[in-house]
Write a structure and sequence with these properties.
By secondary structure, the protein is mostly helical. It contains four helices and no strands. α1 packs across α4 and α2 packs antiparallel against α3. The radius of gyration is 17 Å and the shape is elongated.
């Protein structure tokens, strides 16, 4: 017998797993670049911004094609995604600086904490707004 509730839960869980996978790949790119930039540049915000620009481009592509399999217009989804990415970047940079300069947490540990905090927000907004297909009536 076909159970719609069970099927829907499995579909949601699959989305979360795929999103987690793409986020881990993007995080590894972001964190590696942040670390490399930190060796040469003595500005946490600049290192974070540079790393985030590159990793968010990878993340957009993975999420559009693999996670949400969006057929939404490329133009619309890019605008929505990078608006979200900009907001998260601002929040990310603010939290990172707060952890490092206010709470005296090591910048690499602070980066990990910040990324974990913003993971859930990013998933919800991308699923509900960025890659959501219009419902046809």
């Amino acid at each position: 017998m076909f159970d719609r509730k069970k099927d829907n839960k499995i579909h949601k869980l699959t989305d979360v797993i795929k999103f987690s996978f793409s986020s881990i790949i993007s995080f590894l790119i972001d964190y590696s670049l942040f670390t490399l930039f930190s060796i040469k540049i003595n500005n946490i915000s600049l290192c974070n911004i540079l790393a985030r620009i590159i990793s968010s481009s990878v993340n957009y592509t993975l999420n559009r094609k693999m996670v949400f399999k969006s057929k939404k217009s490329l133009y619309k989804s890019i605008i929505s995604y990078f608006l979200l990415a900009f907001c998260i970047l601002c929040l990310n940079t603010m939290l990172l600086n707060m952890f490092v300069y206010y709470f005296s947490i090591n910048k690499f540990i602070a980066k990990l904490i910040t990324e974990i905090l913003l993971f859930i927000i990013s998933f919800i907004v991308q699923k509900q707004f960025v890659f959501r297909e219009k419902v046809k009536r």
